[in-house]
Amino acid sequence: MSSTLEDKIVNHVICKKVLLPLDKYLIDSNCATRVGRGTSYARYLLDKYLVKIKNKSSTFYILKFDFSKYFYNISHKVLLNKLSKYLSNEDLLLIKDILNTTNSDYINNTIRNLGMGTFYKKDTGLPIGNYTSQFLAVFYLNDLDHFIKEELGCKYYIRYMDDGIIIDSNKERLKDILRILESIVNRDYLLEFNNKTKIYKSTEGFTFLGINYKVKNNKIFRRIVSKTRRRLLKKNIKYCFKYEKIALD
């Protein structure tokens, strides 16, 4: 779904001039495609949160939630309504024009010809590969982020695009939070959690951003999962070994 050079230039300009100024409204632990708040920062926050909570409780729990086909299921109507609080009508029309490209017949026809199984529904989904789409995907759940942090009072919360994680010493509280979030996500965002969504016990381990974490005997153990290891080796061997050494210390 790569764009033409002209489209890439337009997307970069719109993102820089129209969308990036909205970054100041995002919470600190909304980590993805943001300056200074990428994968490394999300892992730093998780390490920080794990150290804090393990010093308070020997056993704790981790709610991991993941959205089903996130990029394909983002509602144009919901997104534009959220953007309307911050953008002028003129800027909204620019964003609407970009979003409407997913309604073009040739896109689903191409997906069908390639044998891919996920199609765009009308007025739904972000153009994959667009620079604007990266920020819009980060922004779409901004109100939910604030609700989790400020209304539900979840101190240890991180979201990386469509992957969210909440840490708490009370499993029943996390069960209640999950029920609340499922209702809000379905009703207000027209999204669903997928079957990867689950509550984990700290001693059994969980995976987040390619790292498997387990807390035993008050120690944090980290292991790079095989899929991530292969990807890093293919991309940059030196970086992989350097990171692995840090991760496993």
Oligomeric form of this entry? single chain
Span from first to last CA? Answer: 40 Å
Portion of residues within helices:
40-55%
Mean pLDDT: 88
Number of strands: 7
Question: Which residue ranges are poorly predicted, with pLDDT under 50 across at least 5 consecutive positions?
Answer: 237-249
- The main sheet orders its strands as 2-3-1-4
Structural class: alpha+beta
SSE succession:
HHEHHHHHHEEHEEEEHH
Sheet with the most strands? 4 strands, antiparallel
The fraction of residues assigned to DSSP E strands is 5-15%
Radius of gyration: 19 Å
Q: Which of globular, elongated, flat, extended, rod-shaped describes the shape?
A: globular
* Individual helix count: 11
